[in-house]
Amino acid sequence: MAERFDEGTKVRRSVLGDAHVDRAEAAKTPFDEPFQILITEGAWGTVWASDGISPRDRSMLTLALLAALGNFEEIPMHIRATARTGASKTDVLEAFQHVAIYAGVPRANQALKLAKQTYAEMEQE
Q1: CA–CA gap between residue 122 and residue 125 (Å, rounded)
Q2: Is pTM beyond 0.90 here?
Q3: What NCBIfam families does the record tag this protein with (predicted)?
Q4: H or E segment at 33?
Q5: What's the confidence (pLDDT) of residue 83?
Q6: C-alpha distances in angstroms, 68 versus 96, 105, 115, 125?
Q7: Closest by CA position to 40, among listed 49, 31, 30, 52
Q8: Residue 111 — very low, low, confident or very high, per pLDDT cuts 50/70/90?
Q9: Which of 12, 91, 98, 101 is the most buried (most CB within 10 A)?
Q10: Per-residue pLDDT at 11 exceeds 80
């Protein structure tokens, strides 16, 4: 498992950036450390580390799933990740349009609002 954790940490840093991962690590406590290990090994060391689909496609799928399920808290983080994964603004818009049709306009609308805010912040940074 150490190898999967190490690979997950590497992939997580490549997608989310060192600053984000450093903040998450600094905020980690003994209470949530098992959860952090789980997502590092499972999400980042297994799913995101797979070469089955491109990081660009993973970004689009992740954003669409977050929006479709109403998990809006992580959308800004994954919008920021598109700068590293290669998913363009057009790609993100297309993903959210699919959400509108298959999961509902209100969820897609909220996701687009968050994306617009996050892109505006990114342009000012």
Answers
A1: 5
A2: yes
A3: decarb_PcaC (TIGR02425)
A4: helix 33-39
A5: 97
A6: 9, 10, 14, 29
A7: 49
A8: very high
A9: 12
A10: yes
Number of Cβ atoms within 10 Å of the Cβ of 90: 8
Fold of 54-124: AhpD-like (1.20.1290)
Please answer whether residues 4 and 45 qualify as being in contact, where contact means their C-beta atoms are separated by less than 8 angstroms. yes
Q: In the block, which residue shows the tokens 């940490």?
A: 9
36-90 confidence digits (pLDDT tens):
999 999 999 999 999 999 999 999 999 999 999 999 999 999 999 999 999 999 9
The pLDDT value given to residue 105: 98
Buried b / exposed e along 42-81 (16+ C-beta atoms within 10 A): eebbebbbeeeeebeebbbebbbebbbeeeeeebbbbbbb
Query: Contacts for 76-80 with beta carbons within 8 Å, 24 or more apart?
Result: 76/114, 76/117, 76/118, 77/16, 77/20, 79/114, 79/115, 79/118, 79/119, 79/122, 80/16, 80/17, 80/20, 80/118, 80/122
The CA distance from 59 to 105, in Å, is 20
Domain boundaries, the chain: 1-50, 54-124
